[in-house]
Amino acid sequence: MILRLKRFFEMFLIQRKSFCIVFLFAISQVFAENDNNSYRQIIQFQETIFTLSADSRIDIISNDGEKNTIFKNDDLKLNCLAANDEILILAGNKGVIYYSNNGKEFESAKTETDKNIYSIVYKNGIFLAGSEKGEIQISEDGKIWTNLKTEAAGDIISISANNSIFIGVTNEGEIIQSGNGFNWKVANFNKNYAGFIPYTEFIKILAIENSIIIIGVHDDGSPAILLSTLGNVWNERLPFYYDEEGIIKYLSSKPNDVIFDYENDQFILACNNGELLSLPSCSRCNKYVKVSDKNLQSLVSIKSSLIIVGNDFSIFKYSF
Question: Are 155 and 133 in contact (CB under 8 A)?
Answer without folding.
Answer: yes
